[in-house]
Amino acid sequence: MLAEHGQYRLDPATVDVDFWRFASAVTARRAAATAQHRTDACEAIVTHYGGTLADGLDSEWLAAAREATRRDALDAVAALARARVADDPDYTLDLLETARAFDPHNELVYRDIMRLQHRLGRHDAISRTLTLLRTRLAELDTTPTTDTVALAQRLREHDTGIPLDGTARPAAP
Length: 173
What we know:
mainly alpha; 7 helices; 2 strands; elongated; transcription; BTAD; TPR-like_helical_dom_sf; AfsR-DnrI-RedD_regulator; Bacterial transcriptional activator domain-containing protein
């Protein structure tokens, strides 16, 4: 412990706090002068995000800090995904799955995942992603929007001709 001006704080020479690494990476991203430095900082943010800040503690002052931390992590994942989607869509899909883990009820993330699964030819995965979204939203007593269901249907049928419900289409006359 260090004492300064009547306050105590942890001594960074003897104590390591995971949030400090995360906060340092966020600061580095904000101060980055080059695209590579921003990318490096975003990768560090994603690496050091440990999930909900102070999970298990219940205090009013934590709500804003939790949301800011989650938002910083999602912003970093989104920036990495935008930077890598053209060159490495498989890595980008992994990033989107990371974003889904960070924010499991974010319907827009699931839509991006389905679009990329379609692009990568992983059409069966689209149905599983929609099912996972339904499961996660059921935790909140809600369901996916009709736009999301329609998107999944269009993407799945586009190349396979198989509806999401698995039923066969009637033969053309």
